[in-house]
């Protein structure tokens, strides 16, 4: 039995009375946003010495620091269960950060809800369920721009220029697309808010190597526009190859930090994490 | 305050309510509340088995209760040889033909390869089967219903003692539950709620319309009783004497005696079922049931046949409801299909289980007794309340008479409010699951 | 000629009543399916929501009638309908605020919300009976027939008459307008799209800056409008009786599930499937078949497959068949 009696559905799976498809699973650290404060200096986006865990659970992150600047691609790699995705979720406000802070563009946003971080300029692409499968590609992009009240046509054109296949399939339901195309929709949706920083949680999970290379090309292309990109990757070698900055996490701590090239050449990193 | 003390206090509280009723109104109505409360408690145990132990959502309790009532007629009514010779066997034959048709269609669905020929075969089987069924069924039904329609017109019963009808009611309900469970459970997600909701309506429709079965809406009255008749007691000098020694007049004493007789019978059944439910809960079977409920994926990975377990518990719970239904019809002494309402026989039982504490058998019993007491007493209380509220209004004002007339509908309102309050502030119920 | 007569008889006794009833069921099922898609539970209180909205309309209709305000040939209830919708909107929003919202904040499991809706059902049921009583109420006025059977016979010279009650015509017209408006709203407007997005993927909708509370509020408003309209149309066509609305819950659920829960298109299709099967299976075909059979071979019986008392049973048999062969319903019950 779970602690909250309201969340105890007694294992009922009666589809004639309950609809669990697409139900919310997010557990934001804050339900209501707290105040933000101005801070000077530092990188454009930084999760600074973050320590924390989910809800009342134990700490998963220990003084973990992750930062990215405009024009850069920062990649978080590490073994399974190292807390890679957790670190990104902490930056996005899905994890209770008990000490340390998250700062974006000279503002301390540690106490904002994930939604308000989106408003502040964070674009986040979750690892799974990252598109509206029953809606068309174009509607997906429109929903990405939901918080904008200005004309979104230019941004949509830019996304279509970046991912031409999406223009072709704009009136098709996103759920009917292939894995790689879905990821493009997901990234395109996040770009529609005109974010100040783009965060990708394992964008290449479950796609073929060819599609993976193509996706990485597109990500570099996005980065060239000056948009800082923070990315968690399973495929450490390929990811570090395109990274300006790399973070190797082990058990929720920074194990190694450096440029992608440095890490690739570091014998210890190679031995422990890149398979020689 | 330990848990045992708290729970005992809760039960004593409900008992006190009944005693107060005895002193304020009459002991007859107090015992009537207890009797129906006991029956409700059995229904609540049945639903608790399904919802509390297995998370199965049954909203067709009414149907199983009604089947129990039907069993009383079929078991305890005198045998009617006339009806059987007129068309009883024909009806049985027709029903067997109908069952054979459905069986053949199911077999065709399972055995034949998918395609147009299968669809055609199924259609032909179903249509031909239906025509044959109706051709055999209709004349026989007419023949049976023509026999003394004012008083009978049905196939009668087996002429067995009425107490036998209680387990028979359980069996009948179990059979229906097995059929429903077989079709609605077992898919990746089930459709039990809508299936039970529908089947309950169908059962009631059958009982209302098939006059040959149990006289339909013409009702069967004067069912045999497991306890003596009041009039016999009043004519028994020994009984009158012992009543007088207690300072009671024979009429009151006889009604009390009869009602108390029922109370004893019901209490025995309730205690037996409660004991069995507790044993089941603590047995390896019950532990597995709860393991499945709390983490189906893990249980399945451990090789547990989840669908089978769900089917078992669904059939068991429905059988318990059927037993309760048979007991209720015995208490009433009549079967009146028109009185089965989902609000009273399905949703009210749900209120009992939720308020008492889903997953706890004692909670279900407490909830049933408490809610039944309120269901009965809210109406007089509401009337009294309305009289107080409208005290200042002039006699004969439209508002006043409307409010007083509407007091009868306070009961549904109150049940809803109680359910919502308990769900909100004490979601595990009065006696939570351990 | 016989063929024409048979067709007229069929239209009169089967097609027209089934179309009207199907429209009413479809409107009801749309409400159930929207709640299922967005709030993610089956609302047991839906029948009583319909009854409440219809009740307000009945009360306002009586008041308008007493003031001598009417719409001539159209029923006065049409004028009262907006008030009914408003009243129903207030009721569901207050209910959401006082009851459902708490469970959303708790991230309660949908099945808990189903039980909560049972409590709401009790309360609404009691409320309606408390205010207007449990009895039949008549509130239809205006022209009774668009075409009466006698006029039709005179017009066409056919043996069979065709009567179209004005309430039946009205039902279909209003239902078509409602459905068109709803689909336009869901597919073309920003708010409508955000509702579909929320139904499809709650987390992602949140990340896109869609406010769940607003989505839920719009859903309740639409559901209140649909429920009241369905309730009033049903009441005009048959009569207003609180208990009947509670019973309607069953065919409405059946319609929504047959069509595929969560799919508005499915809800409409399901409503008509259920209505047509109920009417055809319980209709006595003697008359229609009589026109086809050669002379002397007319059927003697009523040729009624099942007695009318089994009409609810029919919906569930259809439901069972659909679920056995297509567990997600006719329209694949995907998100709204």
Automatic annotation (TrEMBL), chain A:
Residues 1-42 are annotated as: Disordered. Gene3D superfamilies: P-loop containing nucleotide triphosphate hydrolases. The keyword Nucleotide-binding applies. InterPro entries: AAA+_ATPase (IPR003593), ABC_transporter-like_ATP-bd (IPR003439), BCAA_Transport_ATP-bd_LivF (IPR052156), P-loop_NTPase (IPR027417). PROSITE patterns: ABC_TRANSPORTER_2. Residues 44-276 form the ABC transporter domain. Keywords: Amino-acid transport, ATP-binding, Nucleotide-binding, Transport. GO terms for molecular function: ATP binding. Signal peptide: none annotated. SUPFAM superfamilies: P-loop containing nucleoside triphosphate hydrolases (SSF52540). CDD domains: ABC_TM1139_LivF_branched. The keyword Nucleotide-binding applies. Pfam families: ABC_tran. Belongs to the ABC transporter superfamily. PANTHER family: BRANCHED-CHAIN AMINO ACID TRANSPORT ATP-BINDING PROTEIN LIVF-RELATED, HIGH-AFFINITY BRANCHED-CHAIN AMINO ACID TRANSPORT ATP-BINDING PROTEIN LIVF. This is ABC transporter ATP-binding protein.
UniProtKB/TrEMBL annotation, chain B:
The chain crosses the membrane at residues 7-24, 30-49, 56-75, 87-108, 120-137, 157-179, 191-207, 260-281, 311-331, 343-363, 370-393, 408-426. It is found in: Cell membrane. It holds the Pfam family BPD_transp_2. It is a multi-pass membrane protein. Keywords: Cell membrane, Membrane, Transmembrane, Transmembrane helix. Signal peptide: none annotated. It comes from the Bacteria. CDD domains: TM_PBP1_LivM_like. PANTHER family: HIGH-AFFINITY BRANCHED-CHAIN AMINO ACID TRANSPORT PROTEIN BRAE, HIGH-AFFINITY BRANCHED-CHAIN AMINO ACID TRANSPORT SYSTEM PERMEASE. This is Branched-chain amino acid ABC transporter permease. It comes from Ruegeria aquimaris. The lineage of its organism: Bacteria, Pseudomonadati, Pseudomonadota, Alphaproteobacteria, Rhodobacterales.
UniProtKB/TrEMBL annotation, chain C:
It comes from Ruegeria aquimaris. Its main location: membrane. It is a multi-pass membrane protein. Keywords: Amino-acid transport, Cell inner membrane, Cell membrane, Membrane, Transmembrane, Transmembrane helix, Transport. The keyword Transmembrane applies. InterPro entries: ABC_transp_permease, BCAA_transport_permease. Belongs to the binding-protein-dependent transport system permease family. LivHM subfamily. PANTHER family: BRANCHED-CHAIN AMINO ACID TRANSPORT SYSTEM PERMEASE PROTEIN LIVH (PTHR11795), HIGH-AFFINITY BRANCHED-CHAIN AMINO ACID TRANSPORT SYSTEM PERMEASE PROTEIN LIVH (PTHR11795:SF371). This is Branched-chain amino acid ABC transporter permease. The lineage of its organism: Bacteria, Pseudomonadati, Pseudomonadota, Alphaproteobacteria, Rhodobacterales. It is found in: Cell membrane. The chain crosses the membrane at residues 6-39, 51-71, 77-99, 111-132, 168-186, 215-236, 305-325.
